[in-house]
From TrEMBL:
PANTHER family: ACYLTRANSFERASE, PROTEIN-CYSTEINE N-PALMITOYLTRANSFERASE RASP. Keywords: Acyltransferase, Cell membrane, Membrane, Transferase, Transmembrane, Transmembrane helix. The keyword Cytoplasm does not apply. This is MBOAT family protein. Signal peptide: none annotated. Belongs to the membrane-bound acyltransferase family. It is found in: Cell membrane. It comes from Aquimarina litoralis.
Length: 469
């Protein structure tokens, strides 16, 4: 079920009304309702994959208790490894099995070995598997680190794992933050519902107007590499930078806003990343829940920056390399991760700091856009072909044809509105200050967004980009 679908338009208010009908009952009934609603939400794609969530839930619930009850460090570690290997095993099989088989076949073919005995399995990728496996792993790791006591409430834990607003594309919540909210009585105010509605409106603006409008041009160019010149790829790459931001930040805002209807607070996932003045700062602002996950559960355990310089560089590079692979089973994502890892190492060598300035912001944006080429390209060879055309074959700028000719102009118009709003938030005032303005100002601002959504929005249940991860 997509947030931008008619099904969700019915699902959300029905779930909300049923949930608050139980407001004065025991918390367990609210959690049971959220658990049932979350399984319906996820099962809307393919009910068979509910078994994976249920199995992951039971395994990590049991492992958490076993770690806590164990008296020796050795036994605790064994139980932790059970959780890690189980979750990574699920991820490896469903997400990477085809990738490694295909890569092996291509390697054999490249060195002249033709083996007809390979049978390639076409495994369907369960939506959101990268997100909920990381979320459950963080629970058992934090129990092992004694940052969290395991819960004996299976219903609350299952609802935490499958909480539908952030189940399939984050934010990737930590158990230390979200799980206690399932164990305690929730309260909601008119203010929180109002804020939730505003976040949802902004989220739909980012998704339907910016991301989906930009996608029309981006897809036309990136899916026909041989037909376009360098200028078209420059424009398409800039549009893609805002497409992926609008798509993913839009999803996060809708998720955060929806969670507020049920009395939950989810973590901020984006903080105006294109105002970053360095690559390091960009990754402190972009997909914060994933960046901090890799920092806390991979980079720091590897030694972080508390080791020698070359080991530090290795830790940075391998963290981003794995982050790239997490994003998708393709060498394009691995290269994208490697590029960003190299960026950070170069910044360390140059002792670059995040000094605010328009030139630093622009140069950071250009570097990020270059890496987006590899993220968006369909294959590695196409990515290098695009880079070659940008450098050696600028040519003409493709605008569009037929009904799609206005798509890039509408996308640019929406991006200008977004930039103006984010300049306000970054340099002038916070969201709280904006919401404290007069009722007329608020109504005008959100009425404008609703008008742009209805007039310029692309409707049709388009998939969010990060659903494939």
């Amino acid at each position: 079920m997509y947030f931008n679908s008619f099904d969700f338009l019915i699902f959300l208010p029905v779930t909300f009304l049923l949930y608050w009908f139980l407001d004065n009952r025991k918390i367990v009934f609210q959690n049971l309702l959220l658990l049932a609603a979350s399984y319906i939400f996820y099962g809307w794609w393919d009910w068979r994959f509910l078994s994976l969530i249920a199995l992951s839930t039971v395994v990590d619930y049991v492992v958490g208790l076993k770690i806590y009850e164990s008296n020796s460090k050795k036994h605790k570690k064994r139980w932790l490894l059970c959780s890690v290997f189980f979750n990574l095993g699920l991820l490896a099989f469903f997400k990477y099995c085809n990738f490694f088989i295909d890569s092996w076949i291509e390697l054999c073919s490249a060195i002249g070995i033709q083996n007809q005995e390979f049978t390639v399995m076409r495994i369907i990728l369960p939506v959101g598997i990268s997100f909920y496996t990381f979320q459950t792993m963080s629970y058992t790791i934090d129990v092992y680190r004694e940052k969290l006591k395991p819960t004996k409430d299976l219903v609350a834990f299952a609802a935490f794992v499958s909480f539908f607003p952030q189940l399939v594309a984050g934010p990737i919540e930590r158990a230390t933050h979200l799980l206690p909210q399932f164990l305690n009585k929730r309260s909601v105010s008119q203010g929180s519902i109002s804020l939730g509605c505003k976040l949802i409106i902004i989220g739909f603006f980012l998704k339907l107007v910016i991301a989906d409008r930009a996608a029309i041009y981006v897809n036309a160019v990136y899916n026909n590499v041989e037909l376009h010149d360098g200028l078209s790829f420059i424009f398409a790459t800039v549009l893609f930078a805002f497409q992926i931001y609008g798509d993913f930040a839009g999803y996060s805002l809708i998720a955060i806003g929806t969670a507020k209807f049920f009395g939950f607070d989810l973590m901020t996932n984006f903080r105006r990343p294109y105002f970053a003045a360095s690559i390091h700062e960009f990754w402190n602002r972009w997909h914060i829940s994933l960046s901090t996950w890799f920092r806390d559960y991979l980079y720091i355990p590897l030694g972080g920056n508390r080791v020698g310089k070359f080991r530090w560089f290795f830790n940075l590079f391998i963290t981003f390399l794995i982050s790239g692979l997490w994003h998708g089973a393709s060498w394009t994502f691995v290269l994208w991760g490697a590029i960003n890892g190299a960026y950070l190492i170069i910044e360390v060598l140059l002792k670059a700091k995040s000094r605010k300035g328009i030139l630093n912001i622009i140069s950071t944006f250009i570097l990020i856009c270059f890496s987006w080429i590899f993220f968006r390209a369909n294959t590695v060879s196409e990515a290098f072909c695009i880079v070659k055309k940008i450098v050696l074959q600028p040519g003409k700028l493709y605008i569009g044809m037929g009904d799609d000719i206005a798509a890039p102009f509408y996308a640019v118009l929406a991006i200008i509105v977004l930039i103006g709003f984010e300049i306000w938030r970054e340099y002038i005032g916070s969201v709280k200050q904006i919401t404290e303005k007069t009722e007329i100002s608020r109504m005008l601002a959100y009425s404008l967004l609703i008008f742009l959504i209805l007039y310029l929005g692309v409707f049709g249940d388009s998939q969010f980009i990060y659903f494939q991860f």
